[in-house]
Automatic annotation (TrEMBL):
Record field: catalytic activity: L-threonylcarbamoyladenylate + adenosine(37) in tRNA = N(6)-L-threonylcarbamoyladenosine(37) in tRNA + AMP + H(+)
Pfam families found in the cross-reference section: TsaD
PROSITE patterns hit by this protein: GLYCOPROTEASE
Gene name tied to this protein: tsaD
Names of the cofactor(s): Fe(2+)
EC number: 2.3.1.234
Entry GO terms, CC: cytoplasm
Keywords attached to this entry: Acyltransferase, Cytoplasm, Hydrolase, Iron, Metal-binding, Transferase, tRNA processing
Name of protein: tRNA N6-adenosine threonylcarbamoyltransferase
Length: 334
């Protein structure tokens, strides 16, 4: 039987990425050029700098991808690209590249939602079992998504203010930790103690929504008050207390939703899925084996193009192509 190869491109934020995926589940090549070093001194992603880096890096990333795969563009069956959401100027680089390649080589073009990509990162590791619940936690998203079949996403809960990763990055900034703050807080948290009693935002009973802005303010106020009184708080304990609050709410709401919707499979997706505290707590909570839990390897948690190729396979199999009017859409709906 003939194999299907999808070339995927992802440029929604600060990683220039390309990948080639075989039959929707196998990584043949996966290249990520990170721009983190360029954004670090600004304490966050600068959109204009991100776009320019994508333009500079794109052809090299593609060349490296084809070298890794030992394939030519002629052997590719479809070209997939992140259509949104994300930074519009950054997305445009990927979309323009994908369109140009698809047009000049007469290949089908498939636009992919970035979050569908994060979810499908898990399918590169394990086949989905439906109904499935996805906890999506990234720099821009915090959502619980129910899937009854491939390609169908029902948002059952979402953040009402900051995304989990955003809260990590903002708290890290007030602690003078480098960008991105998530991994830094994660590292410190493992050395500290949850002794500062930060709030847990459960919201209404039975709500699967999240809120992290109150927690963020509590951390900032605690730091500020201690500073005024001349007390020096241990940054390890601040990190541990903050992380304990985030993780407890994420894990409990995920567990409750999994029970309510009687899902067979829970998957975790997005950059914050790399968090060691979250990974450990989820494994403990779901250790009864009744519900299968999958967490992708670290490299597939943060932005990459392999996940975009995996998600695109679902549309490819259904014969769904995106037409030439496709454009970067910073606020694309799932
Ligand atoms: O999915 P991602 O790479 O990009 C977006 O689509 O947003 O996620 C990036 C986010 C950042 O906020 C970063 O701080 C967070 O994921 N992150 C982490 C960890 N690694 C990355 N947050 C907590 N713990 C980590 N280990
Ligand atoms: Zn992402």
């Amino acid at each position: 039987e003939k194999n299907t190869y999808i070339l995927a491109i992802e440029t929604s934020c600060d990683e220039t990425a390309a990948a080639i995926i075989k039959n929707g589940t196998e990584i043949v090549a996966n290249v990520v050029a990170s721009q983190i070093e360029s954004h670090k001194r600004f304490g966050g992603v600068v959109p204009e700098i991100a776009s320019r880096h994508h333009v500079e890096q794109m052809t090299y990333v593609l060349e490296e991808t084809f070298n890794q795969a030992e394939l030519t563009l002629e052997e590719i069956d479809a070209i997939a690209v992140t259509e949104g959401p994300g930074l519009v100027g950054a997305l445009l680089v990927g979309v323009s590249t994908a369109k140009a390649l698809a047009f000049t080589h007469n290949k089908p073009l498939i636009g992919v939602h970035h979050i569908a990509g994060h979810i499908y990162a898990n399918r590169l590791v394990e086949e989905f079992q439906f109904p499935l619940l996805a906890l999506v936690v990234s720099g821009g998203h915090t959502e619980l998504i129910l899937m009854k079949e491939h390609g169908h996403f029902e948002v059952i809960g979402e953040t009402r203010d900051d995304a989990a990763g955003e809260a990590y990055d903002k708290v890290a900034r007030t602690m003078d930790l480098p960008y991105p703050g998530g991994p830094e807080i994660d590292r410190l948290a493992q050395l500290g103690e949850d002794n500062l009693n930060f709030p847990r935002a459960w919201l209404e009973e039975d709500s699967f929504d999240f809120s992290f802005s109150g927690l963020k303010s509590a951390v900032i106020n605690t730091l500020h008050n201690a500073n005024q009184k001349g007390i020096e708080l241990d940054r390890k304990d601040i990190a541990a207390s903050f992380q304990a609050s985030v993780v407890e709410v994420l894990v409990e709401k995920t567990y409750k939703a999994a029970e309510k919707y009687q899902v067979k499979h829970v998957i975790v997706a997005g950059g914050v899925a790399a968090n060691q505290g979250l990974r450990t707590a989820l494994k403990e909570r779901f250790n009864d084996q009744l519900i299968k839990l999958s967490i992708p390897p670290l490299a597939l948690c943060t932005d990459n193009a392999a996940m975009i190729g995996a998600a695109a396979m679902i549309d490819y199999e259904k014969g769904l192509n995106t037409d030439w009017s496709m454009n970067a859409n910073p606020a694309l709906d799932l």
